[in-house]
Each structure stands twice: as C-alpha cells, then as structure tokens.
Amino acid sequence: MARRAAGRFAVAALGGGHGLFATLSAVRRLTPDVTAVVTVADDGGSSGRLRQELDVIPPGDLRMALVALTPDDGDAGMWAQVLQHRFGGVGALAGHPVGNLLLAGLAEVLGDPVAALDAMVRTFGAQGRVLPMSAVPLEIEAEVSGIEDDPRLIRRIRGQVAVATTPGKVRRVRLLPTEPPACAAAVGAIMRADLVVLGPGSWFSSVIPHVLVPEQLQALTATDARKVLVLNLAPEPGETAGFSTERHLHVLSQHAPGLRVDHIVVDAASVPDGADREQLVRAADRFGASPTFARVAIPGTHQHDPEALAGVLKDLVGQDVPGQEDGGR
C-alpha cells in the first residue's frame, strides 16, 4: 500500500474508557500515526451531567483517549495530569475533570466536537488523533432478562450506567437514535489504517456499539487493514457477569454477523488449556480468525500490560510495522 511505502504505519483503535486507554498505550509504542475512535454513549458522572446540561457528546472517554496519546513526561505529562484532575468540594464543579470542561467549552466555541478534539491534540502535544464514533450523543438500550420473577421475561433498560449495573443478564443492545450517523473522519481513519484494533473494554457499552453504527461497520468490513480483536481479561460485574470468553465472542457475532477479523488476542492465563480453549477456537472461527494466546495482563491484576500487548500486536502484523525510528515510544 502507498501509505506503507511512505514509511508510516497507521493504526485505528476502537473502544472506550479504560479498555481503549490500554490499547492506545500499547499502539502508541508502534507508531505516532494513531487514531482513537471513541464511543459516545456515556451518561454517568461528569459526562452525564455535561451532556444533560449542555447537550454535548459525553467528553469523558474522549478525554481519556487524549491523555493516553499524550507523552507522560515533561510539560506534556504535567498537562496530562491537569486534564485528568477532578475538582473536589461540594459545589457545581465537584467531580468534573478539567479536561471534560475544556472539551465541552471548546466544542461550544468552535461549534464542532471534532475541531475541538483536534485543537486539544495540538495544544497538549498528543501524538495521533481522537475522534468520536458519532458527532451526536447516543444512548444504549438493552434487552435484559432475569430482572422479573419470571426469568423468561425480557425488560428493556436505557442508559450506559443502567446497562453496566443491571442485576439481570444483558441479551442484546441497540443504539438510540437507531442507525446513528458515523463521524466521517473516523470512517476515513478506519479505511486508511494498516491495523484496526477493537477492544478490550465494557463489552456491551464500549465494544459492541462500534458495530452498531452502519457506516462504521461498513468501513470495518471494507478496510484492507489487519483487524485485531482484543478480549477482556475477565467478565465485568453487572454487564457481563458470568460470561465465558467464548460467550463474549458469541454476543459480538450476534450483533455483527458479517464481521470478520484476522486475529483475536486472548490472555493465556485467563483461558486454561482444555475444553475452554477448544470452545474459544470454535467461536473465533465465526470471525474467520484463530485466537492468539499470550500473557498480556499486568500480573495480579485485570489490566492489560501496554508493553506486552504492543509486543503481541507487532508480532501479529510482522514486517508491516516500521522500525522504532518511525515513531514508536
């Protein structure tokens, strides 16, 4: 491809929250040409307050992605800390991170959330680009069983916080508005990428929403990029409590039956040898992929190790990744 001939290796990383933060911390070690594509359905905490009061896309996950792409030393490191700083006290500002307020303010001044994000990237020295998957705030609606006395009854619940904390079992999610518009720049980043990484993250609220935006799913299907799905290290309380690793793949394939990926990265310690791995291999076949088992967790935690994950991703794409002199850090 022409972009590889030019010596630039482009990555598009899709997700939200702490999962996307981990992916970005890994892929920035491979190249400075990284685009984060971020979910915009958060309705809790500071993000929920700002979207309700100002009718803006929720800024929290976007802020975290921006910080993940910002150098962690010198002045840039100091500003990254400032962006993450939450105001204390009990007043109107209590709990708001500085970066959320800056992003919301810039979006009002510039009249465009993408322009606001690009301005923050330039101002704070981030390497790469941060984009919303849609320029309008979205809601998640889930079909959940196990809430009523009759376990067969399905109830619909709305909102990311409600989905993440439900005591029931999430069966399916959708976005509201239905068939939301994609961010054109995000679609373009997926199409020009050499590597697209989806996950890890909250499965129903940070990963699956990316395949529910029709134009973005079309781009994921059409891109020539190597596509890698990174699985979570453990089920999440509430949202995916009791889910096996194989179940995570099953529900993703239900929401995007035509999606194909090249590789699925699985933490070796989270899926032992034997029947569990055999079931996972069969589930991966739905995506046309074989799983790669590797130790990618920080020992003793359920957090991905950015350096270990970067090494696995580099091995998967092989000679396509330019040398360290081309920008990895």
Automatic annotation (TrEMBL):
GO terms for molecular function: LPPG:FO 2-phospho-L-lactate transferase activity. CDD domains: YvcK_like (cd07187). Keywords: Cytoplasm. The keyword Glycoprotein does not apply. GO terms for cellular component: cytoplasm. GO terms for biological process: regulation of cell shape. It comes from the Bacteria. InterPro entries: CofD (IPR002882), CofD-like_dom_sf (IPR038136), Gluconeogen_factor (IPR010119). It is found in: Cytoplasm. It holds the Pfam family CofD. Required for morphogenesis under gluconeogenic growth conditions. Belongs to the gluconeogenesis factor family. This is Putative gluconeogenesis factor.
